[in-house]
Amino acid sequence: MAATSNLPPGLEGNYLETSTGGDAAWLPISVKKWYTNAFIVHEAVDPTTPGKILLGYKKRGFGAHLYNGFGGKVEPGETPAQAAARELKEECGVEAPLQHCGSLLFVSQSGPEWAFQIEVYRADEYTGALIETDEMRPQWFSTTPASTDAPAPADQGEEELLPIPYDTMWPDDVYWIPLLLSKTPFIGRADFEIDATGKYSMKRWWFGVPPS
Ligand SMILES: Nc1[nH]c(=O)nc2c1ncn2[C@H]1C[C@H](O)[C@@H](COP(=O)(O)OP(=O)(O)OP(=O)(O)O)O1
Q: Which domain of life is it from (predicted)?
């Protein structure tokens, strides 16, 4: 991993680069808005009980038709941790002992002028019953990478899960979800351009982890 000399503007601290790309100039940051994103992850127990991650299919609004964690705006008077817990409950009905695991900065100039500061949380367990809401349809995915030859789960009443659907997620997710899964703290920044069809494409990105 490379040293931190190329940390993008808007990120601070001592971090080692894990991935970077794109050759556009970093966009200026005007208004920063705080958001949250929360994930439930069940670790693999053994080869027949692989790990799984809970994602939600966003049914409307920003990021509609993409799978993501559960989250939204931090409201005035709330801490990001409080907002993460509230959004998780509102969007899929459950409560969880969320732990902060990463901070992400997403910047775009085309469309509404925004810089999203997203605090990312993860929990190993949850309480309550998962429900589909107007905003999100929850779905479990396997955390076993699609390319490995791991055996399919044994037929013990366990549903067979699809791999994480990176093709139907924000394009930055593939760079930091593996860090979330391995419980490695992370930070990152990604700059986006919106094309004529309204699709966000990533023009420059950088992700990193603290030195071990
Ligand atoms: N590039 C990106 N990659 C990613 O993985 N998640 C992103 C992202 N850009 C935004 N998000 C997440 C953060 C947050 O969980 C969600 C946006 O939240 P919402 O659409 O729920 O926000 P709203 O403005 O609707 O807020 P609420 O009304 O409070 O839910 O999208």
A: Eukaryota
Q: What CATH number does residue 179 fall under?
A: 3.90.79.10
In a domain? residue 65: yes
- Is residue 37 within 6 Å of ligand 1 at its C-beta? yes
- In the chain, how many domains are there? 1
Our answer on whether the CB atom of 191 is closer than 6 Å to any ligand 1 atom is no
Q: Residues 58-92: pLDDT tens digits?
A: 999 989 999 999 999 999 999 999 999 999 999 99
ipTM score of complex:
0.92
Residue 212 lies in a domain: no
**Ligand 1 proximity of 68 Cβ (cutoff 6 Å):** yes
pLDDT for res 157: 46
Nearest CA to ligand 1 atom 7: 170
Ligand 1 atom nearest the C-alpha of 36 is 15
| Residue 155 pLDDT | 47
Owning domain of residue 88: 31-198
> Where do we find the tokens 């703290």?
185
For the chain, the residue count is 212
For residues 3 and 66, give the distance between their C-alpha atoms in angstroms, rounded to a whole number. 33
Residue with CA at minimum distance from ligand 1 atom 4: 170
Q: Whose CA is nearest to atom 19 of ligand 1?
A: 72
Q: Does residue 41 lie within any of the structural domains?
A: yes
- Give the residues of the chain that fall short of pLDDT 70: 1-5, 110-113, 147-159
Listed in sequence order, the residues at least 6 apart from 120 whose beta carbon sits closer than 8 Å to its beta carbon are 36, 37, 38, 39, 69, 100, 101, 102, 103, 104, 176, 180, 186
Q: What is the pTM of this model?
A: 0.92
